[in-house]
Amino acid sequence: MRELALACSLSKTLSPLTHPLLFILASPSASDDLSTHSFDYRAFLLVGSRLVPTSLTVVNVGPGFRDQYHSFAPESPFPLLQTKPPAAAPQAEDAYSIGEQKAVDAMVDGFGLGKLQGLVCAAAGQAAEMDSMYAGMLRRMEKLAREVEKSNHRVLDQVVFSSCL
Question: Which GO molecular-function terms appear in the entry (predicted)?
């Protein structure tokens, strides 16, 4: 009954739909020692004014599971990373263009392409490298937040100044 009401409401709100929409209801679950995480899910397609249950295949995104991607092509500003570093370049950093390094720098502070290449190539030490990458992403977000805060202060100062005139 709730699914019917939801489907009717969504079809009215989102009309006109030219293609079906996918809805996924997920609930996380973990083992007692938190070593294993999984998700229970149900997937529905909104077709017209009906929610149709559909199957969903979950693919592990780790480097050892690349053959499961089939025709998946991610859209990302990250440069294409080979699973083996280029043999011609003495340094992994030298194998990439300045534009590719800038694309990584725009998302992560202080995390070079060589480190990113190391994540793709070697399984050992991935956790530490990932922690380093996420720390760089957090630094980048904090820097952006400070810039927004400064610009907000400048705008407020301009508003106060213009209201005094």
Answer: polyubiquitin modification-dependent protein binding
Which residues have C-beta within 8 Å of that of residue 42, sequence separation ≥ 6?
24, 25, 53
In whole angstroms, give the CA distance from residue 64 to residue 70: 14
CA separation for the pair 101, 92 (Å, rounded): 11
Which residues have CB under 8 Å from 63's CB, separation 6+? 83, 120, 123
CA dist list (Å): 102 to 30, 48, 78, 132, 141: 38, 44, 9, 18, 16
Is residue 131 within 8 Å of 105, Cβ to Cβ?
no
Q: Which two tokens stand for residue 135?
A: 């720390």
Predicted TM-score (pTM) of this structure: 0.32
In one-letter notation, the amino acid at residue 29 is S
How confident is the model over 102-132, as pLDDT tens digits?
Answer: 777 776 666 677 776 666 665 556 667 777 8
- At residue 68, does pLDDT exceed 60? no
Which pLDDT score, from 0 to 100, does residue 90 have?
A: 47
